C-alpha cells in the first residue's frame, strides 16, 4: 500500500499540523465572536466503537476470500475507516463518536477477490463501503446504521490494488489499479515523462478510484480537464458480474456507460481498474496574479478566457471577502483597494511558439487587460502554488480553536451564477447569523463555472447540528436557484435529497433501476447516492 | 416545418442528382467489373406497402392528441417515413419494397402532445419510431415487423417542433426544439452571430434531436467537438414521465444522466428540447491540403496535432486508395506519387494573435512539416470544402449504375488503429471479393481516432444480401480487433449485436433495466439499440 495513513481525527500528516497565527485568532475573536477554549480531539484509543456485529463464521468467509491477514477488526483499523473528512465527520471523530465504524476492514488483492467478496456479501447481506483514500467530504463513506437490516458492514479498502498496470505512450493511456494515491500515480507516471495533471485539494491522500467514483475535478482542471475527462476505460466488479467499458476515446455506440459508472460512488459496483488519458509532463510552469475591482468584473474576465481562450492551466478568481482574508500582505493586491484576486497558472511542454507558456500567457494577458484586470506579477501566483494543499490543515487548527470551517460548492451556467452566488450567501447568513463566507470560481467551461464557498463561524453548543442546519439551507438554495448540488465533491449522503430534486423522479427511478439490476441485494454503499425505493 | 422533403428513394434534392462522369463509369467497368445496366428506382406510387394495421378508433385516439390534420396515413407520407438512408435501405426502396412502412405518421406540436402520445401508445401497445430527419444509416428507423405483438407502428415525426426557443448570449447556450434541421439551426443562430459548428455528412437534412439521439459527430469535430459535447441540457418525454437534465456544464452530482439519453436512439424516450453550447460565428475560414507519403506517416502527424496541438477545426486524412480515387486532378497531390492527402481547415473569430487562423495554421504547419508533411496549398482544401456534402448524391448515381457503395466506421486508441484498419479491410475483401475500400481518419482525440471506410463493389443478384454479408464480416472484425462498433453513425438495428458484444452482458443488462423502467410496454423504437431480454 502506498503512503502513510492519514491523521484519523483530521487531515494529513500530524507532523504538519499548523499553529494558528495570532492575527487569525484575533479575527476569530473580534469578527466571529469565537470564545470557546481550545478543544483537542480525544485520543484514538478513546473513540467509542460499537461491538463487531459480524459473526466469526462470516468473518471467516471473508478471510477465505482475501486471506486472514486482510480482514481487520482492530480498534485502530475500524477507527481509521470511520467516516470521511467533512467537517461534521471530523467534529464527531474529535469527540470520540465512532458510531459509524465498520465492523471490519477487508483488503482485497485482485479484481477476482473484489468480485468474490461482493458475491459473499450479497448472499450474507453484509453492507460494503468501498474505501479509497477516505477523503469524502459529503458522507460518502458513512457505514449503515445497525438497524438497517444488514448483518454487518465492511469497509472495502482498495489500498492493496495500488499498481500502475501499463502505459501506452502512443495513445497516451495509462492503466492503473484503483487504490493508487494521486502523488504515487504522478511519481509512477513521471518515470515515463507523463502526468495526469489532477490536483484537487485532496491530492495528497485521495486515490484514482475515488476520483472516478466521485467525479473529482482538480485545481488544474482548466488545463488538464476534470477527472471524468481523463477516464477512457473502466473495469468494474458488480454483484452481478463484471463491466469492462471503453474501446475508444469516444463512440456513438449507445449511451456512454462509462458516464454511468463515473459518479456512481460505489453504489453500483467497485472500480477495479482505470484506463486514464495522460499528458506529457510540462517542462515549464508559471503562476501569476491579476487584480479585478469586483467579483462581477473578474467573473466576466474568466468567462472571456473560457469562451475565447487561451485558457490557462490553472484559473481561480476569489471574491472580495476571500481576497481580503486570503492576503497575508494586503499591499500586494495593487493600487485600487483589495478588489478580487485572480490566480492564473500556465504549464506547457513547449519552450516557445504555439502553446508555450509565453504564448498562452501573452494571449490571456490581452484578454484579462481588456476586461479591466491589473497584472500583479508572479508573487501572488507563487504564494498560491506554495499553499495549494494546506487548507485542510488550517481547518483542523480552526476546529480546535472553536470555529467551524467547511466548504461547499455548486456550478451553473454563466448567466445564472450571480443568482446562485447570492442565494447561497443569503442561505448561510440566514442559518448561521454572521458567518464569514468566502467564494471563488475555480473551474470554468464555455457555458458556465463552479462556485466554491468557504464558511467560518463560531461553534455553538452542538456544532454538528449547527452546521447541518446551514448545510440544509445552502442545499435548498442551490436547488431553488437552479444550480447543481455539487460540482466536484460528489453526492454521498449529504447531497442525496438535493440530488434527487435535481434529477427529478424519473432520474431517480433510472438510478434505482440500475442499482436494482447491478446490486439486487442492495449491499453497495447503502444510503449513498441513490434514494431508497419508496 | 423547415425545409423540403428529401428524395424518398435516395438522398437530398432530386434536382441536384449527379450524372456519373465517364471516368467513374470506366473505373466501375474496368476495375470493379460492374456490368449491370442502369436500374432506375420505381415510382413512389409503385412502392408496395402493407395495409394500415391500426384500427380507426386507435387512429382517432392519436388524432385526439395531435389533431386530425397531424395523423397521416397517405401512401406518400408512409413511404417517406419508411426506413432511413443506409444503402440497404435505399436498395430496398428503389426496388419498391415498402414492407417496413409505419401504419401512420403522427406529428405532435408540443412536449405535452409527445408525452400524451406515449401514454396512449403504451396503453394500446402501438410501437413508436421517433423520426427526425430520417437520415439514419444503421437501421435506426425500421418499423417493427407485423408479427411483433404490436397493434401497429407509428412514425413520430418531430418536424413540427422546429423552433429556436431561446438564446443565452452570456452563457453561449441556445435552446432548441428537436425537429430543427441543421441548416435552419445555423440560419437561426447566425442572426445572433452564433454557430453550432456541427457539419456531418447528413447536415442538409438531419435534425438536432437526431444528432443528440445518435451521438453525431461532424466534419469540424476537431474544432467544435462532437454533438454530445454540445449538449448541456435535455428535456425528454418518456412513457413514465419527463426527464429534465442539465443544471450546469459539468457536475459531480452522480452519473451524468445526459450521457444516458445521448445515444439512446429513441429507445428510452423522445427528446423534446435541447440546450446546446454554441460558439460565436467565425470571421475567418481557411482550408488547405498536405501530402504524406503513407497513411502511417499521416496518421502519426494527425496524432501529433491531437496530442500537442494546435488542432485545426477540420482535420481529415485519406489513405492511399481514397487519395487516389478522390483526386480529380492527380497532379495536384505533389511531387512524390499520390501518397495520402490531409485536409486541414481553420476557423476563428480572431483576426490576429492567439487563436487566429494565421497563428493556428502556422502552429499546425510546424507540426505537420516536422512529421514529414508537404504543403499543397489552399486548392485541395477548397475542393474538399466545395464538395463536402455531395457524397450521398454520388451514391445514388452509383446505385443506379449497378455498384453498391456504402460506408462504415469505427474508432479506437491510436496504438490499435493499424490493427483495426487491417482487420476491416481484410473482412471486406473476404466477404466481397475485390471491393474498392477507401478510408480516412476524420475525428481525432488525444488518445485515439475514428476510421471511416467507403466500400464500392459491383452489385450481385441480391445486392442487399451481398452487403449484409460484408457488413456482418466487418462488424465481427471490429469487435474482434477491439474497436467500437460505431464512432458516429449510431447503433440502430445493424450494430445492435456487435454493440451487445462491446458492452458485455452486464452492460446489456443495464440498458435493459433502464428501458424496462422508462418504457415498460416496450413501445419505443423496438428492436433498436437494446437487445431484447432473453
UniProtKB/TrEMBL annotation, chains A, B:
InterPro entries reported for this sequence: Alkyl-DHAP_Synthase (IPR025650), FAD-bd_oxidored_4_C (IPR004113), FAD-bd_PCMH (IPR016166), FAD-bd_PCMH-like_sf (IPR036318), FAD-bd_PCMH_sub2 (IPR016169), FAD-linked_Oxase-like_C (IPR016164), Oxid_FAD_bind_N (IPR006094), Vanillyl_alc_oxidase_C-sub2 (IPR016171)
Keywords, A to Z, come to: FAD, Flavoprotein, Transferase
FAD-binding PCMH-type domain boundaries: 98-281
Q: Which enzyme class, named as a word?
A: transferase
Name the Enzyme Commission number(s) assigned to this protein. Answer: 2.5.1.26
For molecular function, the Gene Ontology terms on record are: alkylglycerone-phosphate synthase activity
| One Pfam family, short name | FAD-oxidase_C
Which family is this protein grouped under? Belongs to the FAD-binding oxidoreductase/transferase type 4 family.
Name this polypeptide is given? Alkyldihydroxyacetonephosphate synthase
Which species does this protein come from? Answer: Nonomuraea angiospora
Amino acid at each position: 500500500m502506498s503512503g502513510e495513513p492519514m491523521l484519523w481525527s483530521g487531515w494529513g500528516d500530524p507532523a504538519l499540523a499548523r499553529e494558528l497565527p495570532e492575527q487569525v485568532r484575533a479575527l476569530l475573536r473580534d469578527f466571529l465572536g469565537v470564545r470557546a477554549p481550545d478543544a483537542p480531539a480525544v485520543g484514538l484509543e478513546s473513540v467509542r466503537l460499537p461491538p463487531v456485529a459480524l459473526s466469526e463464521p462470516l468473518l471467516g468467509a471473508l478471510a477465505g476470500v482475501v486471506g486472514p491477514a486482510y480482514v481487520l477488526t482492530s480498534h485502530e483499523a475500524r477507527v481509521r475507516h470511520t467516516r470521511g473528512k467533512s467537517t461534521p465527520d471530523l467534529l464527531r471523530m474529535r469527540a470520540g463518536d465512532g458510531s459509524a465504524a465498520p465492523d471490519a476492514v477487508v483488503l482485497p488483492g485482485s479484481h477476482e477477490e473484489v468480485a468474490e467478496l461482493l458475491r459473499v456479501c450479497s448472499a450474507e447481506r453484509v453492507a460494503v463501503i468501498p474505501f479509497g483514500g477516505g477523503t469524502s467530504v459529503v458522507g460518502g463513506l458513512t457505514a449503515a446504521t445497525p438497524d438497517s437490516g444488514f448483518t454487518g458492514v465492511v469497509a472495502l479498502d482498495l489500498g492493496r490494488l495500488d499498481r500502475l498496470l501499463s502505459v501506452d505512450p502512443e495513445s497516451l493511456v495509462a492503466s492503473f489499479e484503483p487504490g493508487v494515491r494521486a502523488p504515487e500515480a504522478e511519481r509512477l507516471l513521471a518515470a515515463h515523462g507523463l502526468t495526469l495533471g489532477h490536483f484537487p485539494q485532496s491530492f495528497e491522500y485521495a486515490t484514482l478510484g475515488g476520483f472516478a467514483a466521485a467525479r473529482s475535478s482538480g485545481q488544474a482542471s482548466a488545463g488538464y480537464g476534470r477527472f471524468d475527462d481523463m477516464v477512457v476505460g473502466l473495469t468494474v466488479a458488480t454483484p452481478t458480474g463484471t463491466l469492462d467499458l471503453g474501446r475508444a476515446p469516444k463512440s456513438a455506440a449507445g449511451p456512454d456507460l462509462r458516464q454511468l459508472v463515473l459518479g456512481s460512488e460505489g453504489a453500483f459496483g467497485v472500480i477495479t481498474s482505470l484506463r486514464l488519458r495522460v499528458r506529457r509532463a510540462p517542462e515549464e510552469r508559471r503562476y501569476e496574479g491579476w487584480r479585478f475591482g469586483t467579483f462581477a468584473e473578474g467573473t466576466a474576465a474568466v468567462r472571456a478566457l473560457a469562451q475565447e481562450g487561451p485558457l490557462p492551466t490553472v484559473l481561480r478568481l476569489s471574491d472580495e471577502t476571500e481576497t481580503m482574508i486570503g492576503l497575508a500582505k494586503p499591499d500586494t493586491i495593487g493600487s485600487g483597494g483589495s478588489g478580487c484576486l485572480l490566480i492564473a497558472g500556465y504549464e506547457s511542454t513547449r519552450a516557445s511558439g504555439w502553446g508555450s507558456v509565453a504564448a498562452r500567457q501573452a494571449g490571456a494577458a490581452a484578454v484579462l487587460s481588456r476586461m479591466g484586470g491589473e497584472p500583479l506579477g508572479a508573487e501572488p501566483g507563487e504564494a498560491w502554488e506554495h499553499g495549494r494543499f494546506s487548507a485542510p490543515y488550517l481547518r483542523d487548527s480552526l476546529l480546535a480553536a472553536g470555529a467551524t470551517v467547511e466548504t461547499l460548492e455548486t456550478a451553473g451556467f454563466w448567466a445564472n451564477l450571480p443568482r446562485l452566488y447570492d442565494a447561497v450567501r443569503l442561505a448561510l447568513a440566514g442559518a448561521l447569523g454572521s458567518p464569514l463566507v468566502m467564494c471563488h470560481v475555480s473551474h470554468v467551461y464555455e457555458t458556465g463555472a463552479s462556485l466554491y464557498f468557504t464558511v467560518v463561524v463560531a461553534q455553538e453548543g452542538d456544532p454538528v447540528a449547527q452546521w447541518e442546519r446551514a448545510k440544509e439551507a445552502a442545499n435548498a438554495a442551490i436547488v431553488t436557484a437552479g444550480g447543481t448540488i455539487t460540482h466536484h465533491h460528489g453526492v454521498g449522503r449529504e447531497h442525496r435529497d438535493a440530488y434527487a430534486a435535481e434529477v427529478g423522479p424519473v432520474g431517480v427511478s433510472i438510478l434505482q433501476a440500475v442499482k436494482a439490476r447491478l446490486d439486487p441485494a442492495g449491499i453497495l454503499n447503502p444510503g449513498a447516492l441513490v434514494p431508497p425505493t419508496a
